[in-house]
C-alpha cells in the first residue's frame, strides 16, 4: 500500500533535528521506491523525488514541526504539481454541447456516462444520453437502466450499426427536444485495436465534440498509462476520467498519466452508485495518497504564524539547555497565534478521536501565563531561585495557588529534562552549556 510505504519512508526522518543531504537522500529513495511499487512510471517517480529533495534541502525546519512532517508537506506539494495542480472542469460550449466518452471495454464508460448525466442534470441541465455501443445489445439496455434510474432520456437505435449516424441523429434529437447536453457513450474493446480506434476517431472528427473524455480503470496500473498514450495520439482528448478508485488501487496511474499525456484528469469515479463521481483536485488526491491526516495543514498553519527568527532563537536555546520561563511564555504566545488549541491538536494524526471529548479550551493556558507574568525577570530566567516566599508572592499576584505554581514548576522541569534528553539523542555536543 502506497500510503503505508510513504508513511514508513517519512518515519526514517523522525527524531532527526534537521533535514540534511544524508537523511533526505535515504527518505527520498524510499519515497521513490514506494511510488514505483505503486505503478508510477519510473521516470516520473525519479523526477518528482528529485524535486522533493531539492525543495527539502532548501527549506528550514520550524521548531513546531519535525523534518518528517515538513517532508510530507513538500511531497504532497510536488505530487499535486505532478497531477496538474489546479482542478480543470469540462467545457459545455455549443448547443447542444457534445461530450464524447472513450476508453477500453470495462473501463467504466457506460457507468461514468450515467454518473456524469446525473451530475449535469442536478446542475439544472437538460441532458440526453446517446447509446453508441453498437456491438453489444446489452450495452443499450445497460444505459437505459441507468437513464431510468436517474431520470435522463436515452437515445438508441438498436437496429442501426453505424455509430456516427446514431450519434448525429441523437444530436438532432437533442436540438429538437430542448436538450443542452448530449453524452455519447461508445464501444470499447478489451485491448487497443484498429477497428475501435477508427470508430472513435471518426466519431471525434464527425461530431466535433465540445469535450472528449478518456475513461480509464485506475486498477490497471502501468497499462493505464500506455492506453492513455495511444488514445491521446489518436484522439487528442481533452481530459481523463479515473474510475474504480474505490478499490484497493495502487493509485500510481493517477500520478503518471498527467505527466505522460499532459492532459488533465477531470473526474474521479469511485463506486457503482450514480452519485459516486467527483471533480479531480490534485491537492486532495496527493493528500489522499499520502494518507497523513492533516499534517499538511498543520505545517501550513505553523509556517504561516511562526516567526522564523523567534523560532531560530528558541531552538538555539533549547540546544544549549537554556530554555527558560521567558521562552516558555513566548512559545505559548506563538501557539495561541496559531489558533484554537484543540483544533491544532486535532490535526495531528491519530489525535482527532482522542481529544474529541476532552475539554481543552483556549483559556487552558491562562493561569500558566498569569503565573509567568507575575514572576520577575530573574525568576523567569532562573527558575531555581524559586522559594516559598516567592511562590506565595507569585500566587497572590496571579490569582492562583502555590499548588498550581508547584505543578507548573514540575512540568517545566520535566520539559527541560526531555529537551536535554533530546539533545543528547541527536548526538549534539552543543548541549553541554547552560545549567540544570
Ligand atoms: P464500459 O465497458 O467501459 O462501458 O464499462 P462499464 O461502465 O460497463 O463498467 C464495467 C464494470 O465496472 C461494471 O461492472 C461497473 O459496474 C463497474 N464499474 C464502473 N465504474 C466503477 C467504479 O467507479 N467503481 C467500481 N467499483 N466499479 C465500477
Ligand atoms: Mg459500456
TrEMBL record:
Part of the signal recognition particle protein translocation system, which is composed of SRP and FtsY. Involved in targeting and insertion of nascent membrane proteins into the cytoplasmic membrane. Binds to the hydrophobic signal sequence of the ribosome-nascent chain (RNC) as it emerges from the ribosomes. The SRP-RNC complex is then targeted to the cytoplasmic membrane where it interacts with the SRP receptor FtsY. It is an enzyme of class 3 (hydrolase). GO terms for molecular function: 7S RNA binding; GTP binding; GTPase activity. It is found in: Cytoplasm. Its main location: cytoplasm. SUPFAM superfamilies: P-loop containing nucleoside triphosphate hydrolases (SSF52540), Signal peptide-binding domain (SSF47446). SMART domains: AAA (SM00382), SRP54 (SM00962), SRP54_N (SM00963). Composed of three domains: the N-terminal N domain, which is responsible for interactions with the ribosome, the central G domain, which binds GTP, and the C-terminal M domain, which binds the RNA and the signal sequence of the RNC. Residues 264-277 form the SRP54-type proteins GTP-binding domain. Its EC number is 3.6.5.4. This is Signal recognition particle protein. It catalyses: GTP + H2O = GDP + phosphate + H(+). NCBIfam families: ffh. Belongs to the GTP-binding SRP family. SRP54 subfamily.
